[in-house]
Write a structure and sequence with these properties.
Low-confidence stretches of chain A: none
Shape of chain B: globular
CATH topology of chain A: Glutaconate Coenzyme A-transferase
Largest sheet of chain A: 6 strands, mixed
Helix content of chain A: 25-40%
Shape of chain A: globular
CATH architecture of chain A: 3-Layer(aba) Sandwich
Oligomer: heterodimer
CATH superfamily of chain A: Glutaconate Coenzyme A-transferase
Order of helices and strands of chain B: HEHEEEEHEEEHHH
Distance between the termini of chain A: 13 Å
Distance between the termini of chain B: 31 Å
Mean pLDDT of chain B: 91
CATH class of chain A: Alpha Beta
Mean pLDDT of chain A: 93
Largest sheet of chain B: 5 strands, mixed
Strand order of the largest sheet of chain B: 7-5-4-6-8
Radius of gyration of chain B: 20 Å
Number of strands of chain A: 13
């Protein structure tokens, strides 16, 4: 991958940026510098009217409290949000709680952080992780912190839209209720993505390679966008600058 | 949890919560229930019991003479104070009566919610307390690293939590190393 002129994190930010539609209200969670930089990139390029909320930021957090943010989302005002998962399965169920049995876990993780609500009430949720592996993409999650789909007796205005990793972009097929491969990033192959995914990954219609970051996308990301998130994510920005991609 | 605290703050016994239905949380938490929406029986809705803490421990920037607390804006401490039965506050400083300036990035918890106040300078460490000091990244790193194994965690607790005899000793120890930004 030494011949690539961008880092895996930059590819992810760019892929996320392309998912933002102009005029949307978009929020990124705490500890989410990649989505935050992706959303700010979109705002500077194709989606100037994006309303950006960054949890943990002073400048991009208009609410008086965490509760007000949840009220805002529950009221249906949030178009796009980002969640992670220690496991994600073919049906886009996410696990943020435990590996193994809930009562006798092999590993315990911090928990839902509101994902049990936000996965339902946000119009589109993009899942992201900085790894793409069989331990992440499992046939069935050990614990459903938040389900990908719900029966018709549950009010659910929103749900999963995409999954972004360093290798690929997956898309959630609403009809099939399953994740499918939309594109694989430069420097990677279909076979590599399939080999590192623990469930059968169908190809979405028109699946193919991910368009590499453009010169404009990279320049904007490395310049104004990094400057913008430096106070909220000093360590991420320092690392990104140190990566010094030639 | 915020909805449960809001129910507690409002004197309700439970709160409906959007989402949750169909998650394993509903399976492992037998106090999380699903009930028909009384106004639209086609839907079911998750309900959680109210949280009314016996005590809320809140660290604030300043206490006013009437017990009101001034603290950084954008936190859920006021909701916690509303829901709790008894509020114990620690503060960077207690103001004796000089005219108080509330910053644009600060909020106030009215003294009517606050039962006791104790001065505890640097009491939020290793987290920050604006505008007095910021989070101590190095100290948080030590905590995160220590949390990975039982042995390291025990050593961390003994060294930084149970070890120091009192708050002043703790501060002397942890602030000896230069505080991160």
């Amino acid at each position: 991958m030494a011949d690539l002129a961008f880092t895996p994190e930059e590819m992810m930010s760019v892929v996320i940026s392309r998912q933002v539609r102009d005029g949307e209200t978009v929020a990124t969670g705490a500890n989410s510098p990649i989505p935050a930089s992706g959303v700010l990139l979109a705002q500077r390029l194709h989606a100037p009217r994006t309303r950006v909320i960054i949890l943990g930021s002073e400048r991009y957090y208009p609410f008086a409290s965490g509760k007000e943010f949840f009220d805002f989302a529950q009221r249906g005002r949030l178009d796009l949000f980002f969640l992670g998962g220690i496991q994600i399965d073919a049906e886009a169920n996410i696990n943020l709680h435990v590996l193994g049995d809930y009562e006798q876990p092999a590993r315990r993780f911090p928990g839902a952080f509101g994902s049990g609500v936000l996965y339902f009430v946000t119009k589109r949720v993009i899942l992201f992780r900085t790894e793409h592996s069989r331990r992440l993409f499992v046939p069935k999650v050990d614990f459903v912190t938040s389900p990908g789909a719900s029966p018709e007796w549950v009010r659910r205005p929103g749900g999963p839209s995409k999954v972004v990793t360093p290798l690929a972009l997956l898309t959630y097929n609403q009809d099939a209720g399953r994740l499918e491969l939309e594109s694989y990033h430069p420097g990677h192959t279909l076979e590599e993505v399939a080999a590192n995914t623990g469930f059968d990954l169908a190809l979405a219609a028109g699946a193919g390679p991910t368009l590499p970051p453009s010169a404009e996308e990279l320049a904007t990301l490395r310049g104004p966008v990094l400057d913008e998130i430096a106070t909220t994510y000093p360590q991420f920005v320092a690392k990104a600058r140190a990566a010094g991609v030639a | 949890m915020l909805m449960a605290l809001q129910a507690g703050a409002s004197g309700l016994t439970f709160a409906p919560v959007p989402g949750l239905a169909g998650s394993d949380l509903m399976r492992v938490r037998d106090d999380f229930r699903t009930v028909p929406d009384p106004f639209n029986p086609a839907y079911q809705v998750a309900v959680v019991p109210a949280i009314t803490p016996d005590f809320a421990l809140i660290h604030a920037s300043r206490a006013l003479p009437d017990g009101s607390l001034v603290l950084p804006a954008r936190g859920d401490a006021p909701l916690l104070a509303q829901a709790a039965r008894f509020v114990i506050a620690t503060v960077e400083e207690v103001l004796a009566g000089e005219p108080e300036q509330i910053g644009a990035n600060e909020q106030v918890i009215p003294g009517i919610y606050v039962h006791v106040v104790a001065p505890a300078p640097h009491g939020a460490h290793p987290m920050g307390c604006s505008p007095h000091y910021r989070e101590d990244h190095a100290a948080v790193e030590r905590y995160v690293t220590a949390a990975r194994t039982q042995d390291a965690w025990a050593a961390y607790l003994a060294g930084e939590v149970t070890g120091p005899e009192h708050h002043a000793a703790y501060l002397e120890q942890v602030l000896a190393a230069p505080v991160g930004d």
